[in-house]
Write a structure and sequence with these properties.
single chain, alpha/beta, Rossmann fold, 2 domains, four-stranded antiparallel beta sheet, 10 strands, globular
């Protein structure tokens, strides 16, 4: 298991604007790495480049030392690089368990073909086991048969995270995972991410909740106007005067 994700000299121009400006970033296995910054800093654009939603104008993306810059998000997912979004992207007509099953099927990638050929789906039992495991990890067992359309925003974010975990990723990119969660859900999410990193998963997240970042992350990158202002231990980064002024809006 590895999952080392790196960006080198990444540039992304959009309609004449430099959204990402020669950014270097490393997300290491066994660590939670956070990207912080004000709205418009380029954080989501950087995530789009790393996950394959956007191609960089310049620079390269590396996964376990291999360049993956030309690969699509689906191709990166097959390698173990999985991403969630700011807005929940679950299937509203499916139940929680069915949403997770989609992730597990994508991980195993054999059920649909075997069904088409009239063969027994040998991965069904494995997919079911993955779904049950992840339902338990995120305390979603009681909601297994609940349609996603009836769930509040915070719970939908947990369902999306659960579906991503069902793919058994090596690296997980989370765009504002704590947004919309109540205090209890935030505590559970923090413990879950720390536990996943402790088992070797690479976790890279964008987050506006600085308390959450300081509690969960091993490394923080502070991004402003498309560039990296600073990187290091989260407590030290958040305490810096320039970060507090430019990112947190607190006077020096």
């Amino acid at each position: 298991m590895s999952g080392l994700l790196q960006g080198r000299a990444l540039v992304r121009r959009h309609e004449g604007l430099l959204a990402v400006d020669h950014v270097d970033i490393d997300a290491l296995p066994g660590q939670v790495t956070a990207v912080i910054g004000p709205n418009g800093a380029g954080k989501t654009t950087l995530f789009d480049v790393l996950s394959g939603v956007l191609r960089p104008t310049e620079g390269v993306v590396l996964f376990d030392g291999t360049e993956i810059t030309p690969l699509t998000p689906d191709e990166r997912s097959r390698l173990g690089l999985v991403r969630t979004f700011q807005r929940s992207a679950v299937f509203p007509s499916l139940t929680v368990a069915e949403n997770l099953w989609v992730g597990a099927e994508n991980r195993l990638r054999q059920g649909a073909l075997r069904s088409f050929l009239g063969l027994p789906d040998r991965g069904a039992a494995r997919a079911a086991a993955i779904v049950e495991e992840v339902l338990g990890q995120l305390n979603l067992e009681a909601l297994r048969d609940t349609p996603a359309a009836s769930l509040p925003t915070g719970t939908l974010r947990l369902v999306e995270l659960a579906r991503a975990l069902c793919t058994k990723p090596l690296a997980l990119l989370l765009d504002e995972p704590a947004s919309g969660l109540d205090d209890l859900e935030v505590d559970r999410l923090r413990d879950l991410l720390v536990g996943l990193a402790g088992r070797g998963l690479t976790i890279l997240l964008v987050e506006h909740d600085m308390d959450f970042v300081v509690e969960v992350a091993d490394v923080a990158y502070a991004m402003v106007a498309g560039t990296m202002l600073a990187s290091g231990p989260p407590g030290e980064i958040v305490a810096r005067a320039d970060v507090r002024s430019l990112i947190l809006g607190i006077a020096r």
